[in-house]
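User: I'm putting together notes for a lab meeting next week and I want to include a structural view of one of the chains we've been expressing. I don't have a solved structure, so I'd like a prediction I can at least talk through. The sequence is below, exactly as it appears in our construct file.
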Amino acid sequence: MAAEFDALLIAGPTASGKSALALRLAEVMPAELISVDSAQVYRGFDIGAAKPSRSLRERIPHHLIDIRNPEDTYSAGEFVTDALQAIETIRERGRLPILVGGTMLYFNSLIRGIAKLPTADPSIRLAIDAEAARRGWPALHGELSAVDPVAASKIHPNDAQRIQRGLEVYRSTGRPISEWQRETHARHAWRFLRLALVPTDRAWLHERIEQRFRQMMQEGFLEEIRGLRARPGLQPEAPSLRAVGYRQLWAHLAGETDLPTALERAVAATRQLAKRQLTWIHADPDWERLDPQQEGIIEAKLAALQRGSLSPR
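Assistant: Thanks for the context. Below is the predicted structure for the 313-residue chain, given as structure tokens.
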């Protein structure tokens, strides 16, 4: 029977069991995993990013993990380039690429494509930085709202990197960045089978999120962040530290909150992240949704994926 897909995509909210599903597949199929996670790309982001252990990565090949230092940036465009290269090399080895994670922007950029934005203009960036030093980023966010309300509505008033980019594009081209972003096209012809774990019981998911965070704390998450704070080049505004959990515990170690408050905020932020991930999935009907709480549903899908009718090309 003709093949139906070239790579398997597994998405879902945090703590829904998507990584476990991918690993179960990799145990019974000739497959390699590609992380779709904006925190796992950073070295030293291990416990809080739920990064697979080194022994597991030695047994089952994983890609796009530990490819940047925490001081570095990593964009959706870079992810697409790296993921497409990984898919191609895995396919050349006769194996199935399984892309798994919860960074829905990365999935969407891979599936739909990324707009070809203007290149950075250092002089405009310096001018924007100087303005921010005088007026503050919330004021510049207000300026962005006036010229590009669509983009500004998706950006936090203190998100310096994205505010700067939005204003830079507008000042250099006279066009809002949101207009540029609508002009997208996919950069590949791969066919994807797309699965999303979508629990119907939010209380179940919230409890799993809290349990996982408690487990991370027992495994040394706070000590991990102490180690990151000791890095001389890592500043609190680094994009890597936007990751939930890291941001809240960093604030605690900086003396801004007590530990119980930091933990409460971290769990709440993780639940909000799960809500946003589900919003991305519900907005795209092409994801095949599986309820991880439904008895037998995962086993049935595993069996189907092992059958020839759903084997990769």
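A couple of points you could mention at the meeting. The chain has a mean pLDDT of 91. The first strand starts at residue 7 and ends at 11.

User: Perfect, that's what I needed.
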